[in-house]
Design a protein that fits this description.
With 220 residues, the chain is of the alpha+beta class. The protein has 8 helices and 4 strands. Helix 2 packs across helix 5. The relative contact order is 0.09.
């Protein structure tokens, strides 16, 4: 008979394996067969190899609950009941996190899922790497460069603009940020950043000006 250690309870017990398989159908968990018994710290090793630590720990807590029910001579909950419990529990937590002011009793809020968390983090890291590769370049001799950016807050219809003017050596001529008490869209914020920036730039330099913005829609 196999010794009942923690690895047996969570990965080898037939009921645990059945629940693991059922949850893997709805959550992006590691396959139970891929988890190795590396000793007393096998759980830490398993958690470190997945991006779904929270869901994995919640499932393991449910397995431990079922195990205690059996130990105390109570009938084990059906696998489908455990799956519904875990899914409902996560739905409730996500609902509270994403809609903190909603009434949970009404149950009419939209919940967004991120089952591909690893892919999302990989994409974010790639985007950040690409952004780091985009470096500011000096304008041609005798020119100046104006960089502008705008931001928009949809919930209050306001925003802000920022602008910086540099000479052909990269020295800052001026740097300004302003609040927009009324702003109707992101493109409006970007356009107003361009207008405000150019207005100031023409007061600060007699050199021709290159206008640079990261807004593709405004650039068109």
């Amino acid at each position: 008979m196999e010794r009942e250690d923690t690895f047996h309870v969570f990965c080898r017990c037939p009921m645990a394996r059945d629940l693991w398989g059922a949850m893997k159908e709805v959550w992006p968990l590691l396959a139970c067969e891929d988890i190795q018994n590396t000793g007393s710290e096998w759980i830490l090793h398993a958690l470190s190899s997945t991006s779904e630590q929270v869901r994995m720990m919640m499932m393991m807590a449910r397995i431990w609950h079922v195990r205690n029910e059996v130990v105390h001579l109570k009938p084990a909950p059906p696998i489908e009941a455990s799956r519904r419990f875990l899914c409902s529990y996560v739905d409730s937590l996500l609902c509270i996190k994403q809609n903190p002011t909603a009434d949970p009793a009404k149950g009419k809020t939209v919940v967004k899922y991120e089952h591909n968390a690893a892919k999302l983090r990989k994409k974010k890291a790639l985007d950040q790497k690409q952004a780091n590769q985009i470096k500011w370049s000096k304008p041609a001799p005798g020119w100046s460069k104006l960089n502008v950016d705008g931001s928009w807050m949809a919930d209050v219809n306001s925003g802000g603009v920022g602008m910086i003017l540099r000479d052909d050596q990269g020295a800052v001529i001026f740097s300004v940020c302003q609040r927009l008490d009324s702003c109707g869209s992101p493109i409006e914020a970007e356009l107003r950043a361009c207008v405000e920036g150019l207005t100031l730039a023409m007061q600060w330099t007699d050199c021709p000006i290159i206008l640079e913005t990261d807004c593709l829609e405004q650039s068109r």
